[in-house]
Amino acid sequence: MKQQLIHIVWHDAHSVSETWATKHEIDAAPCIVSSVGWLIPNAKHEHIVIAQSMILDQDHFDHILAIPVGMIKQINRLKATRVLRIGDDEIQVEPTDR
User: Fold this and answer.
1) Which domain holds residue 37?
2) Number of domains in the chain
3) How far apart are CA 48 and CA 77, in angstroms?
4) Secondary structure of the chain: what % helix, strand, coil (to 5)?
């Protein structure tokens, strides 16, 4: 199965203080997060699950993040437009249709 690389913009539930605070000290601005990872489809009910890394051709993932669907503002599918070839002296950029 070919994995999808996606970009997610989402609202994060976050701490607004490390200690006691008054209502007026609470920052009203939302915490909007941008995450990129490999989509793990159907991994958790009502969540979009992504991984930072995966082992090619295996079902093993690392640094898995499950984001509740209700917190997601936007999902973008990413597509490689160039391949970087690393040689002894330089990195070569080649177009790709992947």
Assistant:
1) 5-95
2) 1
3) 13
4) 5, 50, 45
Residue 79, C-beta contacts closer than 8 angstroms, at least 6 positions apart: 5, 98
Extended beta strands in 1-98, E state: 5-11, 32-39, 47-54, 61-68, 72-77, 82-86, 91-95
For residue 45, CA distances in Å to 41, 66, 88, 91 come to: 10, 10, 46, 41
pLDDT tens per residue, range 26-59: 888 899 999 999 999 999 999 999 999 999 878 8
Q: What region, left, alpha or beta, does residue 46 occupy, with left being phi > 0 and alpha being psi -120 to 50 degrees?
A: left
H helix or E strand, kind and range, residue 1: none
User: Which tokens sit at 82?
Assistant: 């160039």
Total-model pTM: 0.77
d(CA 50, CA 42): 11
Answer for the pair 76, 7: CB distance below 8 angstroms, yes or no: yes
